[in-house]
Amino acid sequence: MSPAPTQHVETVDFVMLYIVGISVILLLGITAVMIYFVFKYNRKKGHQPVDIHGKIWLEIIWILIPTLLVLSMFYFGYTGFREYRDIPKDAYIIKAQARMWAWEFTYDNGKKLDTLYVPQGKPIKLEMQSSDVTHSLYIPAFRIKEDVMFGKTTHLGFTADKVGSYDIACAEYCGLNHSMMYTKVKVLPPDEFEVWLNKKNEPVDSTSSVK
């Protein structure tokens, strides 16, 4: 089981560190070469600039290396994208409704509330719609985000590996109280989730497993 809230977190963080790492290496390398050239080819030393001709291998290197680096970034990024877009067919479906300025989640037994409860280790598929303007459901701890639009159903999938409580925010400006459009996703052990789901009364936000 992943030490992160979801396996997707590790994928996204790896891609981010990979791109930043390459960028830092290039920055330091180019800066070091520039400083070296400034001192080595200083005008006071009498060096005359000379055009370089016929260095095919040099042209191949400065085309091939950046191309390979960009392609590798695309590959890892696309792998992470497909990871959360390919939702398993047996995923547990929850309907999410966005409106100014709140969320509502509906379960298959008709239960509705403004907090998202999910079972640990079970693939989840959110079927999302908006009652008014465009919103965006964003779970920072899971590194996932998807727009929620009026007149269209969008989907978001994830599998929560760690029991806990995580913030849900709206990441698309949607009006005056946009900054207050927060709620929680609460991950429960499967047996506790079943007990909660079958309760007739509305749940209390604190459980024995979620603080």
Mean pLDDT: 88
Count of individual beta strands: 10
Helix percent band: 25-40%
Unreliably modeled segments: 203-211
Q: What summary fits the major beta sheet?
A: 5 strands, mixed
Q: N- to C-terminal separation?
A: 21 Å
- Name given to the CATH homologous superfamily of the largest domain: Cupredoxins -  blue copper proteins
* Level-2 CATH architecture of the largest domain: Sandwich
Q: How would you characterize the overall build of this protein?
A:
The structure is a single chain. With 211 residues, the protein is α+β, with helices and mostly antiparallel strands. The chain has two domains: 7-85, Helix Hairpins (Orthogonal Bundle), CATH 1.10.287; 92-197, Sandwich (Immunoglobulin-like). It is 34% helix and 27% strand. β2 (102-106) and β3 (112-113) form a beta hairpin. α1 (7-40) runs antiparallel to α2. The longest helix has 34 residues, at 7-40. It is elongated and about 90 Å long. Residues 203-211 have low confidence and may be disordered.
Layout: helices, strands, pairs:
Blueprint: H1 7-40, H2 56-85, E1 92-99, E2 102-106, E3 112-113, E4 116-119, E5 123-130, E6 135-139, E7 144-148, E8 154-159, E9 164-170, E10 182-188, H3 190-197
Parallel strand pairs: 1-5, 4-10
Antiparallel strand pairs: 1-2, 2-3, 5-8, 6-7, 6-9, 9-10
